[in-house]
Amino acid sequence: MENPYYQQHFIEIAQIKNDQQLFYLLELTEKLSHLRTEHSKELTDLLRGFTVAVMFYQASTRTYGSFVSAAGGLGANVIAVQDMTYSSSVSKGENLEDSSMTAANSWLADILVQRHPNDESSEISVAKLDTHSSNTRVINAGSGKKEHPTQALLDANTIFNRFGRLDNLHVAMVGDMANGRTVKSLSGLLATVGQGNKLTFVSPDELRMPPENIQALLGKVELSEFESFEDCADADVYYWTRVQREWFTDKNIYEKVKDRFILTPELAATFSPHAIFMHPLPRLNEISEAIDTDPRAVYLEEQMASGPHTRMALIAAILLENPFIALEKLGHIK
Ligand code: NCD
Description:
There is one protein chain. This protein is an alpha/beta fold and 334 residues long. It folds into two domains: 13-147 and 307-329, Rossmann fold (3-Layer(aba) Sandwich); 149-303, Aspartate/ornithine carbamoyltransferase (Rossmann fold), CATH 3.40.50. The chain is 38% helix and 14% strand. Helix 5 links the parallel strand 3 and strand 4. The longest helix has 19 residues, at 19-37. The radius of gyration is 20 Å and the shape is globular. The mean pLDDT is 97. N-carbamoyl-L-aspartate is lined by residues 62-63, 142, 148, 151, 181-182, 242, 244, 280-282.
């Protein structure tokens, strides 16, 4: 199959049009993750000569560090600024477009990994770079409340590795569907790449999935919305999320809804022993720590480790026309 990611921006999950396109990346993820786990020295030759800029305008622990680790582990030069708002020229008033041009023309970045609070931030950077005929490609590492497409990739990788399929799965997403971007990107991906999936959104009425996201899912998955765990006992995946305090203008509403759904050992006991418990993290108190050692919990292990591995694959697929052949040339795979 031709590499669908080569020299493309990756800014919204709808860019993945079918299961083959996703599996191209998941197959590459598997190969790269093995090599990385073995501390393959040759792997650091794969992207030698390329430069990856990481510009974050919103807080992050995992996404930021895993992109730096992914690009560095493949031998790219990495220039990373974790708090653009305070420690870059943004603090002097520079706009997003000019900072993006800086990544391209001053930092000589082949890829700009960007996280920003504006829903349209990726589109804004892409438009500016394209206007100036830049070859720099943008990866959206989280844009406002709207998209977190690389989180969806790592989540799909985690689910696939556990179940061996992305079809006929019942995924219950719990918490903040209104402000959370991970659930929007993941539900979009599951609706596109899988057959017969069932999605159940469990949230307080104030935090329901926006109508435009629901609209986009209709006809592609079986969909339900509840304010309780009705019809959720048989789910394969419980995807828990944080109530996103930073987006609430009325803190009283936040206080009212923040602890509505907590995954406790008692609640977990009512769920299937074959299910998995996911969370994009950071977790506040919506999953009790007692769950961390439950064999169904993957958020501190497989899911977390999927982050750098899928991001290595995405970066390599954008920069190399045929990353599989490039790996063969390193003498690693047959
Ligand atoms: C998420 C995000 O930034 O959207 N974190 C992450 O990247 N794993 C989820 C969150 O902040 O709650």
